[in-house]
Design a protein that fits this description.
The protein is of the alpha/beta class. It is built from ten helices and ten strands.
Length: 256
């Protein structure tokens, strides 16, 4: 596995109005690995994810300090186009959110909107194959996406992100709305995708983090409810030999 950084946060801080949501976050996300962000509810995990592709820009009153380096440049620097950042750092949300369009039009949406030239049928097929969905939907591409099961809808949303050929895929609790069988399919898909993409996943599911991720970051709230990074290391280290007692207490279920 490569240890080259795909993303790096440097003293990253986030406010929503007067409320500080993240404080002093510094961490390196390695390329072509799966990094899990774990911790109790409200500790800033999803907020951090949104910092990585400037989704917080869309929230009125949000303010970011510090740096997020992507391919070595600060995505918050003057002149950086946040749309381009989101194009290269895709996002999959907690609840499957396919558009009320056909399966084909969902997968084709990003390339069409962004004016990508090329054979759209080939782009769609490639994306659906990468999302392990092609064999299940190839005969009904013009049918509505809402007819798919929850797990299929989530894989379609992953295909929609993949159609833009991002370098990084952010996943915010991608399996929390799915049954165990669909969850296993998404987890297997993540492992497969990590060969070509960098994946950052927020999850409340400790077993899932242990199963799928190479690196794990444990977050918790400071005394004023700001999210802080307590410990970050390989998943094996975090789960079997944590250095911070707060990490151990969370992993073993003593709090959270």
């Amino acid at each position: 596995m490569s240890n080259v950084a795909a993303l790096e946060a440097k003293n990253l801080e986030l406010w929503y109005g007067n409320f500080q949501a993240l404080r002093g976050i510094s961490m390196v996300i390695p390329r072509n690995q799966i990094t899990s962000i774990i911790g109790p509810s409200g500790c800033g995990k999803s907020s951090l994810l949104r910092c990585f592709n400037r989704m917080n820009d869309l929230i009125m009153g949000s303010k970011v300090k510090g740096e997020v380096l992507f391919d070595g440049r600060n995505i918050y620097a003057t002149g950086i186009d946040p749309t381009e950042i989101r194009y290269r750092i895709g996002m999959v949300f907690q609840k499957p959110n396919p558009f009320p369009k056909s399966i084909f039009d969902n997968a084709a949406f990003g390339p069409r909107v962004n004016g990508i030239r090329g054979n759209i049928e080939e782009i769609v097929e490639h994306a659906l194959r990468r999302a392990a969905l092609w064999d299940e939907v190839k005969d009904r591409l013009r049918r509505g996406a809402m007819e798919l099961s929850g797990g299929q809808q989530q894989r379609l949303c992953i295909a929609r992100a993949l159609a833009l050929e991002p370098e990084v895929i952010l996943m915010d609790e991608p399996c929390s709305a799915l049954d165990p069988v669909a969850t296993i399919k998404i987890e297997d898909l993540m492992k497969s995708l990590a060969e070509d993409y960098t994946i950052v996943i927020v999850t409340h599911n400790m077993q899932q983090a242990a199963r799928v991720s190479d690196m794990a970051a444990f977050f918790m709230m400071d005394t004023d409810r700001a999210g802080i990074l307590v410990e970050y290391g390989t998943t094996t280290e975090i789960f079997t030999n944590p250095k911070d007692k707060r990490t151990e207490d969370y992993i073993t279920g003593r709090f959270g």
